[in-house]
Design a protein that fits this description.
The structure is a single chain. By secondary structure, the protein is mainly α. It folds into two domains: 152 residues, no CATH class; 149 residues, CHAD domain, CATH 1.40.20. Helix content is 84%, strand content 0%. Helix 2 packs across helix 8 and helix 5 packs across helix 7.
Length: 302
């Protein structure tokens, strides 16, 4: 780990957290703060951006609770992760509905004028689903269990709540955490079919996101090379996320039935999303190679 301090000229070694507890505290406190700030926005005027930011905060929290189990205490961390799952599901339903509609409305702009008009009717059920998802999300935010969860999350970020492992040196934890998270991602990539299925690509994306969150939490210790790996993983996650969104949109349009014009528009939209899904299948390999190069650079520094 001394190699990192020698190579990272942009931040003095004295500024780096020495205890793993300091790293964990900073990561969890940041995500809890983001979630609390989005809570006020969601109650005042929930929109696609605020729902997205809230979901990211929850996802990052759940990921960090998993990554730092030895520091937090397994039983408590698992219990909080499970309670956060319901919150994540509520935000995800609303956000996914927004993403789906935005993609399909964008696709509809490429259709002929008559077909664009018919797209409004074709997409009406999806708008209803989006409105229903937002209504369920608002109910979730008004549930007493949600307020209790926020209080417990705030308590968790207190330094005194961390386990005994929090006193250990951060530099001793970093290589182990990176190795374990990266190994899980590589396992997903190795187990894929040739060519991979859409579901396998989706699982690779989820694993890449977990590694990215772990590496981002560790950047105060691991420095520039960790940030480079996080950026490469974010790119991989984006490529695979676009591919997954295209698959979801394609399948939803394939399932639409009704009058001939509506069915025709749905088929045209499905064709556009099928092309996007196919393009994504080719793009992810290049992003994966970049991530592997960034990981090798970080591993040499560790």
């Amino acid at each position: 780990m001394d190699g990192i301090a020698a190579r990272e000229a942009e931040a003095p070694a004295a500024d780096r957290p020495r205890r793993i507890g300091d790293v964990v505290h900073a990561a969890l406190a940041d995500s809890v703060d983001r979630l609390v700030r989005q809570d006020a926005v969601l109650r005042a005027h929930a929109d696609s951006d605020s729902v997205h930011d809230a979901r990211v905060a929850v996802r990052r929290l759940r990921s960090d609770l998993r990554t730092f189990l030895p520091v937090l205490g397994a039983e408590r961390a698992r219990e909080l992760r499970e309670r956060l799952r319901r919150l994540q599901d509520g935000f995800s339903a609303a956000r996914d509905a927004d993403v789906l509609l935005a993609r399909l409305y964008r696709d509809a702009e490429d259709l002929a004028e008559l077909e664009t008009s018919a797209a409004e009717e074709t997409l009406a059920p999806l708008r209803d689903e989006r409105d229903a998802a937002y209504a369920r999300m608002r109910e979730m935010l008004d549930d007493p269990s949600y307020a209790a969860l926020l209080r417990d999350l705030a308590d968790m970020t207190e330094q005194s709540s961390l386990g005994g492992a929090a006193e250990e040196l951060a530099c001793d934890f970093v290589p182990r955490i990176v190795r374990d998270a990266w190994s899980a991602l590589c396992k997903r990539v190795r187990k894929r079919s040739r060519p991979p299925t859409d579901q396998e690509l989706h699982r690779i994306r989820i694993a890449a996101k977990r590694v990215r969150y772990a590496v981002e939490a560790l950047t105060p210790v691991a420095g520039r090379r960790a940030r480079s790996l996080a950026r490469a993983l974010e790119n991989l996650q984006t490529v695979l996320g676009d591919q997954h969104d295209a698959v979801v949109a394609r399948e939803r349009m394939r399932g639409i039935a009704g009058d001939p014009q509506r069915a025709f528009v749905a088929g045209a939209l499905a064709a556009l999303e099928h092309r996007a899904a196919t393009d994504g299948r080719g793009a992810w390999r290049k992003a994966w190679r970049r991530a592997k190069r960034a990981h090798r650079a970080l591993r040499r520094a560790l």
